[in-house]
Design goal:
The protein is of the alpha+beta class. It has a domain of 151 residues: Jelly Rolls (Sandwich). It is built from ten helices and eleven strands. It is elongated.
């Protein structure tokens, strides 16, 4: 029995559907498409999520629509993978970007005898027309569908492939995360601006270069830098220069982008390191010593760590740990 999930009372900009449990009769993709049309509506087409054959499977799709742009997170699991090639006949004449999080996608264009394999950690951006096919497999993918206007000349002949951690893709995905976090609070003008920035950042992915000095992109650049910094808090090389290098912009451009956050790059790194150290002080087991924490988060010495921690939290690390029922060793 198929089951559709759709959040009651959800804002019209967000859409969600899922299909679970075995399908023993009929085509599962037909069932999912019918349920999607009933619950979500035909105004928002179902993202490509064809299901091959019958059997036990689970598919979930969470989507966001910004005017003529669609963002979807697709998760498909099935123990019965037959590698069937499926026509890409939905969202015709649009730009499709697939960022593969799990599994591997296979794409082909039979007319041109082209085949492309996109593993986890990679993306493919392509002009979506009837010549494309993709192979069904278990996967988790983030999909963006955008209008061809302004983007077609960059991609009509050949797809663009690359790592999801490229500078241009980091900025695009950071902007997507910001949209998801703020969508419910955006005014119509805000939605329009978010859409335009998304298209601009997609142009950067297709051209494999982004104008980081463009004011419209400053929030995405700051978010991408924050995301990157958060994964390198224990790295001694973490600095504004390192972040700028990874994001392919100048340090000055990065600093200007951070102006929208009312915090410098260096201040953000220090604050995040202190926050992680604060959590470590009150973990139930395996708490490091104060000197180990300071060294772990790249403070010059324990005295510097203690002094900076007290400036932020009004207590030394030892006092903070005691106030939460723990003991911190020097």
């Amino acid at each position: 029995m198929a089951d559709i999930e759709s959040g009651p009372g959800a804002p019209p900009r967000r859409f969600s559907a899922g299909l679970t449990n075995p399908i023993t009769t009929g085509k599962p993709d037909t069932s999912l498409r019918h349920k999607w049309d009933v619950q979500v509506g035909k105004a928002v087409p179902l993202p490509p999520a064809e299901l091959a054959g019958a059997g036990d499977f689970r598919v979930s799709i969470h989507g966001t629509k910004l005017h003529d742009v669609f963002i979807a997170n697709i998760n498909y699991n099935s123990p019965h993978i037959d590698g069937t090639w499926v026509d890409s006949r939905y969202f015709p004449d649009m730009i499709a970007i697939d960022v593969v999080r799990r599994g591997t996608w296979h794409f082909t264009r039979p007319r041109g005898h082209d085949r492309f394999t996109v593993p986890a950690g990679q993306f493919i951006a392509r002009y979506n027309n009837s010549s494309w096919q993709f192979a069904v497999a278990s996967h988790t993918t983030q999909k963006l569908m955008l209008p061809v206007t302004h983007l077609g000349p960059l991609i009509r002949k050949r797809p663009v492939l690359g790592p999801s951690e490229s500078a241009e893709m980091r900025l695009l995905l950071a902007h997507v995360r910001m949209i998801d976090a703020t969508l419910d609070d955006l005014s119509p003008a805000g939605v329009h601006a978010a859409r335009n920035a998304l298209v601009e950042l997609t142009m950067g992915v297709l051209a494999q270069k982004t104008d980081g000095a463009e004011p419209l992109l400053a929030p995405a650049l700051a978010q991408a830098a924050q995301d990157l910094a958060n994964t390198h808090l224990t790295d001694p090389e973490l600095s504004p220069a390192m972040l700028a290098r990874e994001l392919n912009v100048s340090v000055r451009t990065l600093q200007r982008a951070f102006a929208v956050t009312n915090e410098s790059v260096t201040a953000y790194i220090r604050r995040q390191r202190l926050e992680q150290a604060r959590h470590a002080l009150i973990t139930p087991h395996g708490r490091p010593s104060i000197s180990e924490l300071g060294a772990h988060f790249q403070f010059a010495d324990s005295s510097h760590f203690i002094r900076t921690f007290k400036e932020f939290y009004g207590q030394t690390p030892a006092q903070y740990a005691r106030s939460h029922g723990h003991t911190a060793t020097p």
